[in-house]
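hey can u check if this looks right to u? its 127 residues, i copy pasted from the old doc so theres a chance i mangled smth
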Amino acid sequence: MGRFLIRLVITALALYVAIALVPGLHWTGEPVALLGVALVFGVVNAFLKPLLTILTCPLVVITLGLFMLVVNAVLLLITARLSQALGLGFTIDGFWPAFWGGLLIGLASTVLTAMTGAERRRGEEHG
């Protein structure tokens, strides 16, 4: 449970960084609502990313993986739609803000995970 909460906070912080830096990403909710957006983003990634990856596999292979940036943008757009429906205050103006936001969220999440040592802790639990 602790690792889940750490990942949730890291995702929320990565979303916050992207919202602050990428024009076209907007969040007007309460601070707790950003954790809700992070939860929605995690659920969308857990269920739809594998499906979209399989469906777009030829494009991913042809582009040497770069098409995954498009997949991430689509997942972020879906997250925004679901967040709007849930009243969490997260919106995106279009594909390109979602594209750059997805890229920045991935980078920020990687940096924050490395800074917190969350991946290291996971390995220590198993070995």
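The CA atoms of residues 23 and 52 lie 26 Å apart.
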